[in-house]
Amino acid sequence: MTAENRLVVSGIICHSPESRNSPAGIPLTRFTLEHRSQQVEADLPRDAFFKIVVIAAGTALKQVAGKLQRGDEVRVEGFLSRMSYREDEARLALHALAINRQI
Known about the structure:
By secondary structure, the chain is mainly beta. Helices cover 7% and strands 62% of the residues. The mean pLDDT is 91.
């Protein structure tokens, strides 16, 4: 079985990005992305709407994420994983591998 976990989503940053360093000293930027689109499901149009937390880790993404503001349109590529490593934490976050600002 191939373990695939890749997500590409675009949307608007609805909460200002927050930056900090992890206990290991890794730069982290976190923001909430709001997605709205119309998709086709069972041959019928369906409105898709969700908000997801995006976590951008590392120096390269810190430079990109540090320039983002609330209201910016972005396209994020990454993978889904738990928001934290706590055993009882079940909430998912999009862990960014690439962030592109939409113009």
